[in-house]
């Protein structure tokens, strides 16, 4: 058996854990750049708690709160320059996946001279220390070494595309998990982020780089999320705070565990495909991946028949049900589905094959076309 496992994030979980464990923040530096979106971190209380903890420690802070959904290279340069010009010596990212991913990139750009053209694939050997506070339960960015950004300049035809900056330096030192920040999340955000976490764990089991430890974590994350499925299906749309707090906690921890999975394995085909509806239609990231799950898993099950590398039975065991029943539940969370125009299906089916290279069964271009058509046709 081969293993190469790194997960250097210290995870603190619990109500008010940020303030209770604020001495950890004191280790990071004298002045923080707090990186957030414009609203959500304030509304849920995480921003106020971060300020309170820093001030109790006697640490200075400045704010960058212009992170948008699917943050662009332009935005993270702005944040990195702010950290540099303000003399910040650490970064505190606070919010959903977008602010956390932006915080990671800012930590790199604050201390490296990297041009916009070089950002994706640049070599660097330092980054500011980082602490992350997730306020949604899905991305798992707090336990990964990835910053997923929108590249506005790098593609050949200048259409924006999702690309990543990867480095072990992007693992935060600390992740503070307080489910209280997620308790007001509405139905769409709760469900779409839960689907994101679920797809991380499911895809993690279906990646070439899956190993014993990543599978162990993935199975557990899947079981935890499936245990929340009935509550997700019955989400009290008019009153999000009626969603059980215990399930909020479970989803938050499961999303961090699923982050640990993809930190080892990367993601498989659905994440590569999901970027297209997200970039072109603005479809929420988790939902976009979920749209492909039924067709992708059916294709995997078909292709692995007769192979020695059969992974769907272990996945079904983790789900606690046959795939068909899982597909029915997922459909209830996703309905109504988006439909793509024929021209979109044809264009998207030309997805670069290198994006599909991490899946345990290598898809052909026609397989990708089939999954797009079955999912969005
Ligand atoms: Fe994701």
Topology:
Blueprint: E1 10-13, H1 17-20, H2 22-26, E2 31-35, H3 40-43, H4 46-57, E3 60-64, H5 73-85, E4 90-95, H6 97-109, E5 130-134, E6 146-151, E7 161-166, E8 174-177, H7 187-205, H8 212-226, H9 229-233, H10 245-265, H11 269-281, H12 285-304, H13 312-319, H14 323-334, H15 342-348, H16 365-376
Parallel strand pairs: 1-8, 2-3, 2-4, 4-5, 5-8
Antiparallel strand pairs: 6-7
This protein binds fe (ii) ion (FE2).
Fe (ii) ion binds next to α7.
Distance between the termini: 42 Å
The CATH architecture of the largest domain can be given as Up-down Bundle
List SSEs in N-to-C order.
Answer: EHHEHHEHEHEEEEHHHHHHHHHH
Number of helices: 16
Q: Any low-confidence stretches, pLDDT <50, length ≥5?
A: none
What's the CATH class of the largest domain, please?
Answer: Mainly Alpha
What portion of the residues fall into strands of 2 or more residues?
5-15%
Mean pLDDT across all amino acids? 95
Q: How many domains is the backbone divided into? A: 2
Secondary structure: number of strands:
8
Largest sheet: 6 strands, parallel
Query: Remind me, CATH topology of the largest domain?
Result: Dehydroquinate synthase-like, alpha domain
Share of helical residues: 40-55%
Shape: globular
Ligands bound here? fe (ii) ion
Radius of gyration: 20 Å
Supply the CATH superfamily name of the largest domain.
Dehydroquinate synthase-like - alpha domain
Instruction: Output the structural class.
Output: alpha/beta
* Spatial sequence of strands, sheet with the most strands: 1-8-5-4-2-3
């Amino acid at each position: 058996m081969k293993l190469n496992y790194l997960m250097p994030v210290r995870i603190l979980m619990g109500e008010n854990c940020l303030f209770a464990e604020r001495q950890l923040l004191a280790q990071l530096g004298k002045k923080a750049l707090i990186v957030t979106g414009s609203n959500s971190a304030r509304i849920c209380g995480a921003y106020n708690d971060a300020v309170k903890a820093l001030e109790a420690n006697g640490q200075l802070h400045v704010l960058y709160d212009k992170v948008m959904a699917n943050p662009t290279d332009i935005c993270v340069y702005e944040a990195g320059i702010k950290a540099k010009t303000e003399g910040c010596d650490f970064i505190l990212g606070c919010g959903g996946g977008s602010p956390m991913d932006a915080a990671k990139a800012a930590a790199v750009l604050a201390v490296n001279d990297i041009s916009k053209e070089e950002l994706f694939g640049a070599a660097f050997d330092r980054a500011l220390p980082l602490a992350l506070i997730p306020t949604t339960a899905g991305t798992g960015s707090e336990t990964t070494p990835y910053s997923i950004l929108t590249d506005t300049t790098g593609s050949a035809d200048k259409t924006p595309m999702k690309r990543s900056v990867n480095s072990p330096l992007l693992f935060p030192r600390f992740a503070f998990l307080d489910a209280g920040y997620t308790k007001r999340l509405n139905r769409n955000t709760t469900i779409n982020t839960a689907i994101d976490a679920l797809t991380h764990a499911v895809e993690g089991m279906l990646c070439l780089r899956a190993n014993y430890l990543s599978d162990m974590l993935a199975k557990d994350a899947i079981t935890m999320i499936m245990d929340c499925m009935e509550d997700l299906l019955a989400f009290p749309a008019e009153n999000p705070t009626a969603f059980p707090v215990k399930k909020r906690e479970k989803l938050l921890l499961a999303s961090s565990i699923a982050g640990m999975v993809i930190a080892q394995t990367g993601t498989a085909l659905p994440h590569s495909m999901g970027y297209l509806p997200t970039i072109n239609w603005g479809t929420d990231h988790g939902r976009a991946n979920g749209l492909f799950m039924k067709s992708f898993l059916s294709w995997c099950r078909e292709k692995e028949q007769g192979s020695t590398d059969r992974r769907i039975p272990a996945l079904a065991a983790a789900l606690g049900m046959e795939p068909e029943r899982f597909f029915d539940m997922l459909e209830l969370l996703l309905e109504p589905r988006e439909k793509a125009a024929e021209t979109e299906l044809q264009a998207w089916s030309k997805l670069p094959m290198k994006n599909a290279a991490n899946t345990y069964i290598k898809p052909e271009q026609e397989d990708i076309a089939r999954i797009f058509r079955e999912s969005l046709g």
